[in-house]
Amino acid sequence: MFLSLRKRYSDWIIKSAFERISPKRLLVQALKGDDVECSCCGGKFLAFMPFGTAKNKRPHCLCPQCGTLPRHRLMWLFLKERTQLLKKPMRLLHIAPETFYFNTFSKHPLVDYVAGDMFMPGYKYSPGTIDLDVTAIQFPDGSFDAVICSHVLEHVPDDVRGMRELCRVLKTGGFAIIQVPMLPGLERTDEDTSITDPLERERRFGQHDHFRIYGLDLKDRLESAGFLVEVVPFCDKFTKQEMFRYGLPAGEDVEAYYYCVKA
């Protein structure tokens, strides 16, 4: 009887242990190595994972530990090197925050963090995120020291109005980091807000819910909204070996940062 009880107890311990080990944890352990390194979570792995749709799956992309993508890892390096965020007290407005950034900024003692997104049926939002329309932001003029708005404006019919709102809620001297998908070599933004067919939007603008694909005139648009704009080709500072190790954007995925200051 004692042996039977001991066996059942051992089986329960093993079962409980496996139940506590999530598939994600098993994957992280399986990929442990030193070939690549996530700049966001610091994890080191044999490789980053593929990411995307069945028709457009990109290799060497997703961090198995924190779920960041190449543009997220590049943004984190940019924020640490080029801004005072996380170094002194700041009030930050973050439009459509990614999970890694939400979890990091919302807990940081130097960041008074406001995360906002336009709530849509069928989507989940991190607790504490507020319903926010970037073309009609519900905060007074000069409310924030910094704004992050990455891959949002291409979804907004009146993007210039959104740019003006971002400038309005910044304090004088405050900065906004704007990032959007761009087509290399395109001089003027290709847009058409009258297109409603998702397939035509995807064909022309790269995604079913985009209204445009931006060109080099983005700088002019942002300046017309009231910003002083510095275009920062941040990827240029990294070697090919560093680009691979940190899983940073490459080829047509490379995007400059638009560092915008309210004068």
What does this 3D model show about the protein?
It is a single chain. The chain is built from eight helices and 13 strands. With 263 residues, the protein is α/β, with parallel strands linked by helices. Helix 4 (99-105) links the parallel strand 5 and strand 6 (111-117). The longest helix has 19 residues, at 2-20.
The CATH architecture term of the domain at 71-238 and 252-262 is 3-Layer(aba) Sandwich
Provide a count of the helices: 8
Radius of gyration, in angstroms, nearest whole number: 22 Å
What's the number of extended β-strand segments? 13
User: Which strand order spans the largest sheet, edge to edge or round the barrel?
Assistant: 7-6-5-8-9-13-12
Average pLDDT rating: 89
Question: What does the main sheet amount to?
Answer: 7 strands, mixed
- Termini distance? 81 Å
Strand-residue fraction?
25-35%
Which key phrases capture this entry?
about 260 residues, Rossmann fold, 8 helices, globular
List the helices and strands and how they pair.
Blueprint: H1 2-20, H2 23-30, E1 32-37, E2 44-45, E3 49-52, E4 57-62, H3 70-82, E5 90-95, H4 99-105, E6 111-117, E7 130-131, E8 144-150, H5 159-169, E9 170-179, E10 190-191, H6 198-205, E11 212-213, H7 218-224, E12 227-232, H8 240-245, E13 257-262
Parallel strand pairs: 5-6, 5-8, 6-7, 8-9
Antiparallel strand pairs: 1-2, 3-4, 9-13, 10-11, 12-13
Concise structural overview:
The protein is of the alpha/beta class. The protein has helices at residues 2-20, 23-30, 70-82, 99-105, 159-169, 198-205, 218-224, 240-245, and strands at residues 32-37, 44-45, 49-52, 57-62, 90-95, 111-117, 130-131, 144-150, 170-179, 190-191, 212-213, 227-232, 257-262. The strands form four sheets. A seven-stranded mixed sheet has the order 7-6-5-8-9-13-12. It has a two-stranded antiparallel ribbon with strand order 1-2. It has a two-stranded antiparallel ribbon with strand order 3-4.
